[in-house]
Amino acid sequence: MFRWLVANRPQNLITGPVIYGMIIPPLILDLFVTLYQAACFPVYQVAKVRRGDYIVLDRHQLQYLNFIEKFHCSYCAYASGLIAYVYEIVARTEQYFCPIKHARRILGTHTRYARFLDYGDAEDYEARLEAFRVAATGMK
């Protein structure tokens, strides 16, 4: 294992402590976003995001990976799944509270954004906002 690490990816020995030391912020984010959703979504009747749909840890079962590769894959799967989970919680929050597009084009919008109201479109705003809120609850 050590020979593989030194011969194949010696830069991992140098950057590994930095990369794996960064697990603390994602763990804190996970905790706080999960608590936020648990406390607030029921109040507004917003449909909850299933954490297990986004954070999937299965790559460690691949037999062709060594222990270090399995560990790397688990770390990345957790981090990228967490970001997707948080992104969906934020998307549902935005849909409920402020489903309005930005004045200029932005990169990286969530799937709900395309259906948001156009910037400056004030016609029937309150009624249309309520329709977005009802949609966020998962009710018709």
Features:
single chain; 140 residues; mainly alpha; 0% strand
Tally of separate helices: 5
Instruction: Label the structural class.
Output: mainly alpha
Determine the fraction of residues in helical runs and give it as a percent range.
Answer: 55-70%
Shape: elongated
Please describe what this structure looks like.
By secondary structure, this protein is mostly helical. Helices cover 60% and strands 0% of the residues. The chain contains five helices and no strands. It has helices spanning 2-8, 10-21, 24-44, 67-97, 125-137. Helix 4 (67-97) packs antiparallel against helix 5 (125-137). It is elongated.
Secondary structure topology:
Blueprint (H helix, E strand, L loop, with lengths): L1 H7 L1 H12 L2 H21 L22 H31 L27 H13 L3
